[in-house]
From TrEMBL, chains A, B:
Keywords, alphabetical: FAD, Flavoprotein, NAD, Nucleotide-binding
Protein's name in the database: Dihydrolipoamide dehydrogenase
Gene source species: Diaminobutyricimonas aerilata
Domain (FAD/NAD(P)-binding) ranges: 12-323
Cofactors named for this entry: FAD
Highest taxon of source: Bacteria
Length: 494, 494
């Protein structure tokens, strides 16, 4: 209160701007490597994922998914007589966000030897961050080794007449909802839009989704198609290839005029049209970078032109996913240590200090109904990247394990195979409860395990993972012969 | 009817004795390779797995598992007001066994160009099988290239006083049950015993399980321990380290005296004490082999001392699992073709014509509550095999994805790491719905993907597969540095 004039200077090896999961991991790796680190955070320590994204959104979706799974199996279905208890779902969500308290995260950071400075941090020069603290004080942080920007991203608000003024919901509001609206319009067609359409439709909200393109564009086309069909079955009014042209507040909520000439009215409006970098007001201009832009990095997450500035997580726009940001954070934290103490830098492809997987091995699960689990390149992206590819498709519903899992199971799987190297470049699974199928594909892609070896990775019967056998069989049994032995002479049986 | 005297001779490239999934796959690969093949089967085409094992047992277990999963999530739990509908479960099981009709399988075989000869086949000399058909006829089958024995295994009935005479249930009866008994004693402690205890306890049957050892011996100890604890919580009377000493029929069912001096009475008795080879009456003596024994093979499934006799599936005792038998069948069918037409034999380790994964990469899912998914070597087995190992343990309940999946999720995971080669030798997951986690471990083991590469196989957040990150972190971040680069000089950042 009386501190408004205080300015102090502190020195750390590493200053981390932004205390989400990514920033926490950079700091943790640095401290575990023997350096000192401070995290600057003006909101909750733990960040977007913990309080307004992954955790609450999945908590909003899980109960309905579990109920759906039980309803899909005779013998169990008969026992499900009630409906989803929305209040219980919201209460459960609250427990996963710790009621938006970061006390647990603060205790973790303290235990991990990481300092936390609450306040708004801005880069104020080379190796320097100036923080305005909530009590009005100013702290100048000097970074002996590195500053890591891990400020993440914000919801992007597209330039639609009246939209910003109407103060729509963003993902934060949708995931932290306390009272479910009777009707909701969602602008957007990506993961957040599709997941929130699924969640709110499950809550009984009348949902309209307006997307200028197809749903889940960028993924294999059948992913968006199947989610589109399922959302429509569940009563969601999907308006694809449609643009909102004007938004206004009404007495009862919102009115959205569309490019089709219609007006959609709803109690609430969610904008889920992508993300914008949180770099507007972090002092980038003081070091010659442009505020409001995504930051380029090399594979060690170092910003080109600097030997002390790292950009980690969403802010570098390599892969806007918590797990991928944490992955980058481990590499960045470790390489900061290696460079600080003169240890070997492991920056060859797949080394410890590079985020190689960001290029072509990024896994993502979309918790819609059906779920979409994808990793690596789509067939289209693989072709565009110059690979000679073959896409192998199989109907998940034909897999014995899937039909045991749920009556009338419907799903689809695709493997994208590099024909020259006989390795998997991408995999997509769409269907109920496919989320946990993904890791095998990620290991196959990252491990560059050739098809002939994958034939020996026998899926347990009867699990849904039998899809692996079916995909290989669909590709053709000739792929079981190791390529470097095709020309070998007959070998005596040992 | 009037055919009793008929004897005819037929010639095929390949004669397959036994038409389970294994025999079907041998024949299918042979036919796809351009050979002719006949399957001899005296029961249902499709075999044990389709009618009396994997399919019906999993069908008996799945509905309860789905219901349990819904009950474990607030928001969904409130909607589950009823109990498992046992009659609906049995009806669902019937649909998976096609009411024990093999018409669909016969149609498949016909479409695949495989001949089917119904009857009891016995080897009657070199490359010869004599079949007694149901109409009293005799068919002598001459095999130009190979005879494949794929007769499988039967329930083993241990030598306990009165047991055989009491005509207890075996796995076939337990999986094809029409009326659920009020009480059931299970003799055995392996997968079938544990799964059937889980299923019947879920049906409301009073279950007593008598095992001379621990439950699920041979797996990581914590697997059996957790299943033991859960079965006890669910009211199963587990008598471990106990031997049945005498069995008798009573007016109400069975009385089983145990080595502890107690007598357990129950309406029904299931013996699930292992498997015996189905080789007693298949003519092995005519070619100098001993009836009633398991058959040795090399890795191409060829029986030593013969150039025409293959033993595939349970009968060779390499890995008594349908998926592993089918895997062997693909290798065997293909190598029979290769040898027949003089094509290269791919029999180096991990080749197309060898079942290399039988040695140290066999996956298995036990559909108990909690589920047990394991692949490769246990820590104990790895040490016994001479590996320098480190076992890495992590509590699955601490994984964010698991706690989202079910409130109060309890589970355990272990990775067995080869310290010399820095690869995974074994993995075990125990917990609700862990079945689909297994394939990633199988790919890692079979692909011999080193730990430093596995760090780049980022699990999607928040899924249960995040266990992979936690296991690697528990092992230690130093494992992220590629071993062959540890001594490399500083490399310039590109």
């Amino acid at each position: 209160m009386t501190n408004t004039e205080t300015t102090r200077t502190e020195e750390y090896d590493v200053v981390v701007l932004g205390g989400g999961a990514v920033g926490e991991n950079v700091a943790d790796r640095a401290v575990q490597g023997g350096l000192t680190a401070v995290i600057v955070e003006h909101e909750l320590l733990g960040g977007e994922c913990s309080y307004w994204a992954c955790m609450p959104s999945k908590a909003l979706l899980r109960s309905a998914a579990a109920l759906r799974a039980a309803r899909a199996v005779r013998g169990a279905a008969e026992a499900v007589t009630g409906d989803l208890d929305v209040q219980a779902v919201l209460a459960r969500r609250d427990s996963f966000t710790n009621n938006w308290s970061d006390a647990g995260q603060v205790a973790w950071a303290t235990g991990a030897g990481i300092d936390l400075l609450r306040g708004h941090g801005r880069i104020s020069g080379t190796r320097e961050v100036t923080v305005h603290t909530p009590d009005g004080g100013t702290v100048v942080l000097r970074a002996r080794q590195a500053v890591a920007i891990a400020t993440g991203s914000d919801a992007y608000i597209p330039d639609i007449e009246g939209l910003r003024e109407a103060r729509p919901w963003t993902s934060r509001d949708a995931t932290s909802v306390k009272e479910v609206p009777a009707s909701l319009v969602i602008i957007g067609g990506g993961v957040v839009a599709a997941e929130m359409a699924t969640a709110y439709a499950g809550f009984g909200t009348r949902v309209t989704l307006i997307s200028r393109g197809a749903l889940l564009a960028g993924m294999e086309p059948f992913a968006g198609e199947r989610v589109t069909a399922a959302l429509r079955e569940n009563g969601v009014d999907l308006r694809l290839q449609t643009e909102p042209s004007r938004v206004a507040r009404t007495d009862h909520g919102f009115a959205i005029e569309t490019s089709a000439g219609d007006t959609v009215e709803a109690e609430q409006l969610l904008v889920a049209a992508g993300r914008a970098p949180r770099s507007v007001d972090i002092g980038l201009e003081t070091i010659g970078l442009r505020p409001g832009t995504w930051l380029d990095t090399d594979d060690t997450l170092l910003v080109p032109g600097f030997d002390w500035l790292y950009a980690v997580g969403d802010i570098n726009h390599r892969a806007l996913l918590t797990h991928q940001g944490k992955y980058q954070a481990r590499a960045a934290g470790d390489v900061i240590v290696a460079r600080a103490i003169g240890r070997d830098v492991s920056d060859a492809r797949w080394g410890a200090h590079v985020a190689s997987a960001d290029h072509g091995a990024v896994p993502q699960v979309t918790f819609t109904d059906p779920e979409v689990a994808s990793v690596g390149l789509t067939a289209e992206a693989a072709i565009a990247a110059g690979h000679r590819v073959r896409a192998v498709d199989y109907d998940l519903g034909w897999v014995a394990g899937a039909s045991l899992h749920a009556d009338g199971y419907r799903g689809q799987a695709r493997l994208v195979v590099d024909e020259d190297r006989s390795v998997v470049l991408g995999a997509t699974f769409v269907g109920p409860d496919v989320a946990e199928l993904l890791q095998a594909a990620t290991v196959a892609i990252v491990g560059e395990v050739p098809l002939d070896r994958l034939w020996h990775a026998v899926p347990a019967y009867p699990t849904v993972n039998e899809i692996w056998l079916r995909l290989l069989e669909t590709y053709g049994r000739e792929s079981a012969i190791p390529k470097n032995r095709e020309r070998a002479d007959l070998t005596p049986v040992d």
